[in-house]
């Protein structure tokens, strides 16, 4: 087995000079707003590793990597108090709902993968919520009005039942050690006493406020409670400004005292349902009381060198990453530099092929099970054969995977991972979907409801069509990596359709290019956007009236060389150099040495976060 020190030490940058910036660095892209992005100065020098990265973190007893330093410290405090990795993950997730409200909160959904050392297996949980049981597609369309082709991003109609709190309690019942009151106490304290707002989160709050103001001009929805909660002074909180949310503290205190049922059957549930029905929602108390998370099998596919990528099944998009892996293992990417046009071309075309199947097949499996042949090696070879190595294919369509035995097993989101001294590792992702959610905040509760129902299709022929009591297609996906059949790494990379693409790029950076855990996340990324979506009508159906951009747009970061961008354009790709880092997601990772138990952690340079251990 490749030693864990490899993922801690400097990488062999000779394998990827196009990203290494050694003595004679390649030209860095000067397009768009490079002066703003680089401030006319490049990276400093480091004695080991890539100049554009920093050292990973190593610790023996426990590790946490989250999008906010205070959430990371809360997780470590829980571990030191005797809590399990699941306790610490719940505590960190609660904190992020307060400290990173632009990405998550208890108005959203949750998915997680847990490695349990006692049973030596991976457990998956799907904590996504469903649509109102008493509202049909016809009734929804009547509310939307004539000519509607999509569910709006704000208001009551895109709301599905928030599943996070129920998933917390299911995870805690199986793997928790401390009480839920202990796990929620740090966030309750910060919500009352305040915390300083982090810089990137302040920027996202500012963007969110501008987006809601723009949507208020197009849609009629109640934004006043949200404005009072986060924007009471008329503006977003500044970096370093102390922020308090006493309403959220009260809500979490009731949950800590009364358990899961407080949110789905108690006082909080009644406040939620009364408010949502006033706004035009069809939800009932019975819908909330009936909600239940689902334990699901984790599926893994092999890449190369003994590494396997593991993901959760639909209604999420995790299988898209597995499909990409099955396509890309048919070509040796390491024969080219990491920043070469060939590598970026193959990753992009693999994404486009996988996402055609996402748009066609991925939905709530209770209503439309996906073909299990999606994950077969044979199907991966079949799809790989469609890639032209020299040109971007103008349009791909979905494949026709066979059914066979099941394998063993600009959205805004937060991803976190925690590991404890016993070897338990948690990969957890949680989201309100677009922006901060759908704009609605019930009086006195302090959190926003998700707008995940926006991802239903309105085409009745589509597997992802809106139906009563159904889960929509979901973008958020936790991930896990095995090495030689043993647990190796808990990781994720949030950000809408970037997530499967990001998971695969991290795996490629580690396995094919020898980067350490931090470099694998810091290296310049690509993000392809376009093609048919799960929210679109089926191709050729009577509802198929929207023009689809089949080729899409390939966004790359400035670290991709100028020559590569020019070559990709010559190959037919529509390439944009994106300098803000916003479309490329947020990465956190923890790897564990199976011999010594030492953990290595990494965090996202594009966020405010921190990886730390003890």
Q: Could you please describe the fold and organization of this structure?
A:
It is a single chain. By secondary structure, the chain is of the alpha+beta class. A 7-stranded antiparallel β-sheet has the order 1-18-17-13-12-9-8. The chain has a 7-stranded antiparallel β-sheet with strand order 7-4-3-11-10-2-19.
Task: Show the helix and strand layout.
Layout: H1 17-20, H2 34-38, E1 57-59, E2 63-66, H3 69-80, H4 85-99, E3 109-116, E4 121-127, H5 137-144, H6 164-175, H7 180-193, E5 195-196, H8 199-216, H9 224-230, E6 242-243, H10 246-258, H11 260-264, H12 267-278, H13 285-290, E7 294-296, E8 299-302, E9 307-311, H14 318-328, H15 341-361, H16 377-384, E10 411-419, E11 425-434, E12 479-483, E13 486-494, H17 498-511, H18 517-522, E14 526-529, E15 553-556, H19 562-570, E16 575-577, E17 586-592, E18 599-603, E19 610-613
Parallel strand pairs: 15-16
Antiparallel strand pairs: 1-18, 2-10, 2-19, 3-4, 3-11, 4-7, 5-6, 8-9, 9-12, 10-11, 12-13, 13-17, 14-15, 17-18
Helix pairs in contact: 3-4, 4-6, 4-7, 7-10, 14-15, 14-16, 14-17, 15-19
